Amino acid sequence: MKKRISILGSTGSIGTQALEVIDQLGYAVPVLAAHSNITLLEEQIRRFRPRLAVVYLPEQARQLAVAVADLPVKVLSGMEGLCEAASDPETDIVLNAVVGMIGLQPTLSAIAAGKDVALANKETLVAGGALVIEEAKKNGVSLLPVDSEHSAIFQCLQGAPPDKALNRILLTASGGPFFGKSREELAGVTREQALRHPNWSMGNKITIDSASMMNKGLEVIEAVWLFGLPVEKVEVVIHRESVVHSLVEYRDHSMLAQLGVPDMKIPIQYALTYPDRMECPVSPLDLTKYGTLSFFPPDEETFLCLKACKLAVSRGGLSPAAANGAGEAANRLFFEGKIPFLSIGSLVMEAMERQPGLPCDSLEGILEADRQARDYIKQQVSRNRGNL
User: Fold this and answer.
1) Non-local CB neighbours of 45 within 8 Å, separated by 6+ positions
2) Cβ(65)–Cβ(45) under 8 Å?
3) Is 179 helix (H, G, I), strand (E, B) or coil?
4) Tens place of pLDDT for every residue, the chain, 388 residues?
5) Edge-first strand listing for the sheet containing 244-250
6) Residues forming beta bridges with residue 6, ordered by sequence position
7) Does residue 230 contact residue 250 with C-beta atoms inside 8 Å?
8) Of the residues 30, 56, 111, 300, which has the maximum number of CB atoms within 10 A of its CB?
9) What does the alpha-carbon distance between residue 102 and residue 9 come to, in Å, rounded to a whole number?
C-alpha cells in the first residue's frame, strides 16, 4: 500500500519540494495546510486532491473554500484546523514544514494521534524538546529529521551498535553570506545582503537565521534532543561548500559523514521513505568539481545567536523556548528594517538570560516563555528606538 503523507506548510520551500518528491514516488496526500498563500494552495489541491485543506488565516480560508467549492475537500482554518490536520486518521506520516512556533502544537497533536512526524519545524524541539520527546516515547512514534544536518546524522547512525557508541556530533554550517566578517563589518548590512545565501534556496526567515547563525544555534538544540547528547558533545564546523552535511564521531574516534549536493529533496525523501532508499530527482555529487572541501571554526563572539542557543540548552528548562521566541521576533524586526543586524544576537542573548529557571513540562509554560521573550524584544525596541 502506498504511503499517505500529510503536509503542514505545503506552500513553503520545504513543502513545495516535498510535493515534487511525493509526485515522483506516487504517494497519496490526504491533507495540505498553508499559512496564507491560497493561490498556490489551490493549485496543489487540484493536483493532489486532498480530503482536507487548512489555511491558518481565517479570511484566506474562506476565500479558498469558495475557490475549491467544486472539489470534495474540507477547508479549515487556525490552530484548531492545523491540529485536526496533524491528527488525520488516514495519514501515515505528517511532514511538519510550518515555520516558527506555530508548528509546536500540531506536532503534539500528531504524536498524540500516533502519527510518525517528519520534522522540518525546528521550533518543535527547540522550544518544547523535553515535552515533545517524552510524548513521542509515550505514544511510540518516530521523529524523522528533515533538516539536512540532522538527516545526515540520522543516516550516519544507521550502522551504529545498539548503544550508539557516539563520542560527538559535528554539525556543518555554510557560514551564510557573512562568513569571516567582523562585527564592525556587519554593523550596516542590509536585509537584501542577509538574504543572499551562497548555497541554499530557503524562505526569508530561515535565510536570515542562517546569516545570523541563529539557525545553527537552533539546530544545536534540536540535535541535543534528537540524539540524546549533552550540548558539549555537539560541535559546529563551518563548511563553505555544503557538501558534507554533518558527521558523527564514534568512541574509537572513527568518523562517518553524509555527503551530497546541497538539495533539500534528499533529506526530505529519506524522511518519507525511511528505512528504504529510492531514486531521487537530484543531481549526483561529483567531488572532482569541488576539488577542495574547507572547514573552519565558528566565530561565536561575532555571531552571538549561536552562543546564546548553546547557553540556552545548557541552562535547560524554558531557556531554549525564550531564545527561540526572541529570535523569531528579532528576525522579523530586522526584516522590517526596525533593528540593525547585530541587534538580533544581543537581543536573543538578553531575552534568554532573563528567562526564569522553570521546567519545560507543559505546552502552557512553553507558550508563556515564548510570549514573554517576544514582549521583551518589543519593549526593548520601543524603549531604545534608534539606539540598538
Assistant:
1) 32, 53, 68, 71, 73
2) no
3) coil
4) 689 999 999 999 999 999 999 999 999 999 999 999 999 999 999 999 999 999 999 999 999 999 999 999 999 999 999 999 999 999 999 999 998 899 999 999 999 999 999 999 998 999 999 999 999 999 999 999 999 999 999 999 998 888 889 999 999 999 989 999 999 999 999 999 999 877 766 778 889 999 999 999 999 999 999 999 999 999 999 999 999 999 999 999 999 999 999 999 999 999 999 999 999 989 999 999 989 999 999 999 999 999 999 999 999 999 999 999 999 999 999 999 999 999 999 999 999 999 999 999 999 999 999 999 999 999 999 887 756 6
5) 234-238, 166-173, 244-250, 255-259
6) 94
7) no
8) 111
9) 10
CA 220 to chain centre: 11
Nearest CA to 323 among 341, 345, 293? 345
Cα–Cα distance for residue pair 298/296, rounded to 1 Å: 7
Cell 559546529, located at residue? 236
CA distance 241 to 259: 11
In the block, cell 526567515 appears at: 205
Grid cell locating 289: 568539481
Place of cell 561575532: 302
CA dist 326 and 305 (Å) reads 10
In angstroms, rounded to a whole number, what is the distance separating the alpha carbons of residues 81 and 131? 22
Helix (H) or strand (E) holding 76: strand 74-77
Burial 228-256 (b: 16+ CB within 10 A, else e): ebebebbbbbbbbbbbbbbbbbbeeeeeb
Within the chain, how many helices (H) and strands (E) appear? 17, 11
CA distances from 58 to 31, 75, 77, 78 (A): 17, 10, 5, 6
Has this prediction a pTM greater than 0.90?
Answer: yes
